[in-house]
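Write out structure tokens for N-(5'-phosphoribosyl)anthranilate isomerase.
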Amino acid sequence: MAVQVKICGLNEPEGLRAAVTGGARYVGFVFYPASPRYVAPLLAAELARMVPTGVRTVALFVDPDDEFLEAVLGSVPIDTVQLHGRETPRRVAEVKQRYGLPVMKAIKVGGPEDLELAVEHAQVADRLLFDAKPPPKVAALPGGNGIAFDWTLLAGRRWPRPWMLSGGLNADNVAEAVRVTGATALDVSSGVEDRPGHKDPALIREFLARATAL
Ligand SMILES: O=C(O)c1ccccc1N[C@@H]1O[C@H](COP(=O)(O)O)[C@@H](O)[C@H]1O
């Protein structure tokens, strides 16, 4: 099965074009104001309208309240909600039910114990996303830090829901990441940027070429 790719943190037409013409199956918009990739709903709506049929739009949130979810989901055409904070399985179920959209829940992996949470979330989330646990420094984002986790933790594991691998992926390590984990879907952000928050179209094309050739 061909590997599917999500390019996350798109905030300019150039990056978006490189993603969709290069073969991305998902494009992600970050609605987390503290992120250098944050995109205002008005601009996200313009970008989302450029996305061709067959490519899915993903809205990334971190512990959003209903007011914020409504403001974004009411104005931007979104196919999937990505929850990347400390949302509980109950909150995931609530968001799914209230907005009628599939939810992908991020699981932050630092050690084997963190995978227990994935077992719980797999009861309600439509998809799991395995990312590295953020480093314990004050300014660290809850994701999008460009760091990988120990991929062998996922080797041989089976999940009752589809899942994606993320965390520190780039064109140079993507083949190894897929080999070790068996992932069939990947999510990348920092690894296709030339500076935090700025996507490099050439790096996007290179990542997609390597990943989709696997
Ligand atoms: O990208 C961000 O700014 C971000 C902010 C808050 C939570 C998650 C975020 N991004 C997600 O983090 C992972 C890993 O990204 P990276 O490739 O290591 O930079 C990915 O799933 C992004 O969607």
